[in-house]
Write a structure and sequence with these properties.
The complex is a heterodimer. Chain A starts with a helix and ends with a strand. Chain A has one helix spanning 2-20; strands at residues 31-35, 38-40, 43-47, 50-56, 65-66, 81-86, 90-95, 103-109. Chain A contains one helix and eight strands, in the order H-E-E-E-E-E-E-E-E. By secondary structure, chain A is of the alpha/beta class. By secondary structure, chain B is α/β, with parallel strands linked by helices. In chain B, 20% of the residues lie in helices and 20% in strands. Chain B has seven helices and twelve strands. Chain B is globular. The relative contact order of chain B is 0.25. Classes of the chains: A alpha/beta, B alpha/beta. Chain A binds chain B through residues 35-38, 58-61, 63, 67, 74-75, 77-78, 93-95, 97-101, 103, and chain B through 75, 110-112, 137-138, 141, 143, 181-186, 223-226, 282-286. The structure holds copper (II) ion. Residues 62, 96, 98-99, 102 of chain A line the site of copper (II) ion (CU).
Chain lengths: 111, 320
């Protein structure tokens, strides 16, 4: 799948950029793993301007959907990813629109 | 747990349901459920027993339930969901009494793709019966949340695809509880559909047997895994006055059954892959089983209705 490959490349770049720029948030906190019908970690804190990537490690598709609809992924099949860059500080609550019991939060701080 | 165990139909006792039959039903794993409406409350029997001489002889309406085909899924424990659907179809075609129609309780596809719906239709069409569908959450994953599904299956339906029809004196209601889900919640019917339901049953006499079918269980089966419907109780409140209500669901890929007053709840097996029993795994993803065992966990259901009986008879039949 072309889309998956593209995301994988983007994903590999994240740790490199983090290493190069001293002010960057640690790379691992930019990734949210979707596993066993949960977002892990359920809440992360990032600086404004950070790109957050979700990767689906389940055998079942999930989505990443902001409660305020400010971002929304397509259905992510196994190993598909979705990224979104948070420009404005604030708290962004999101859930899986297919399995709404799955909820998470991104806390964005001013740099 | 083998096919011959399923030969005995559920027997009525004082509270209308056999404890032994109930437990037996809970241990089945499988493919299809044969619903037999003998008197308003359904009893389920596996397809294999429906095929066996010991099966109750259907004398009224008989219809079939299949569920959770997940065409497009290609991972363990089932890398060929078309093959298992094909086997379910073959089993249905060999039934001695031809059912009047089928219902499919959703998750026809895995990712709501045209080709997945096409492939499913091509196989299901071979049964040669009318099929009544409701969508599962996997059927409404397109950008327009179910437009593809509604274009194919939604003719004559309302809203996200709900409808009702009458067959053999039974009022059938197909509900949609997989769209517009709320963060932190469960399955959802929504105000518009609830209002429609209330109106839909208003003019019916209380002696009309009711069969409701929807993808996600309407009862709180295991909310921790999302196995329930937030406003399911409100839907059921409109059906309280009816003497016989049967609720048929899919979604959980295993048989669960309970009876509460006049309402019998039943979930069918998938034709694609099993899921773990509530709380027995970290999450409700596909349950891994040995390749040789898979077909014991898949199946269809067969339902028989005989006027005058309170309960419909349901036969759950595993693929193997
Ligand atoms: Cu999900």
């Amino acid at each position: 799948m072309a889309r998956t490959e593209t995301w994988r490349v983007a994903f590999l770049l994240v740790p490199l950029l983090a290493g190069a720029a001293a002010f960057a948030v640690d790379a691992p906190t930019n990734e949210v793993k979707i596993e066993n019908f949960t977002f892990a970690p359920e809440a992360i804190t990032v600086l404004a301007g950070t790109k957050v990537t979700w990767v689906n490690r389940d055998d079942i598709p999930h989505t990443v959907t902001a409660q305020d609809h400010s971002f929304r992924s397509k259905a992510l099949d196994t190993n598909d990813s979705f990224s979104f860059t948070f420009e404005k500080p604030g708290e962004y609550a999101y859930f899986c629109s297919i399995h709404p019991k799955m909820v998470g939060k991104i806390i964005v701080k001013a740099p | 747990m083998n096919g011959s165990d399923h030969g005995e139909p559920l027997q009525d006792d004082d509270d209308g349901v056999s404890r032994r039959g109930f437990l037996r039903c809970m241990t089945w794993a499988g493919t299809g459920v044969l619903w037999m409406a003998n008197d308003g409350l359904p009893r389920s029997v596996g397809l294999s027993s429906a095929l066996a001489a010991t099966a109750p002889k259907p004398t009224g309406l008989t219809f079939l339930q299949i569920s959770d085909s997940h065409i497009g899924f290609d991972r363990p424990p089932n890398t060929d969901v078309l093959a298992t659907l094909r086997e379910a179809v073959a089993k249905i075609k060999t039934l001695p009494v031809k059912p009047s129609f089928m219902i499919h309780t959703g998750d026809i596809s895995h990712l709501s793709k045209e080709k997945e719906f096409d492939d499913a239709n091509q196989l299901i069409r071979e049964v040669g019966l009318p099929v009544f569908y409701v969508p599962g959450e996997h059927d409404v994953l397109d950008d327009e949340q179910g437009k593809l599904y509604r274009d194919r299956y939604g003719k004559g339906t309302k809203g996200a695809g709900w409808y009702s029809f009458d067959q053999h004196g039974i009022h059938f209601i197909g509900l949609v509880n997989v769209v517009d889900l709320k963060a932190g919640g469960l399955g959802n019917l929504g105000e518009e559909q609830l209002k429609w339901l209330e109106d839909d049953v208003r003019g019916l006499s209380a002696s009309t047997p009711i069969v409701v079918f929807a993808h996600i269980p309407l009862w709180s089966l295991y909310p921790e895994w999302g196995w329930g419907t937030d406003d399911g109780a409100r839907a059921l409140s409109f059906l309280k006055r009816f003497g016989s209500v049967t609720v048929l669901n899919g979604h959980i890929h295993q048989i669960m059954q309970k009876v509460e007053g006049n309402v019998a709840f039943h979930t069918a097996r998938a034709t694609a892959f099993p899921q773990p029993a509530p709380g027995t795994a970290p999450g409700p993803g596909p349950m891994q089983v040995p390749a040789g065992e898979l077909r014991k966990y898949l199946g269809v259901a067969h339902v028989n209705f005989v006027p005058g009986n309170k309960h419909l008879a349901i036969i759950d039949t595993p693929l193997a």
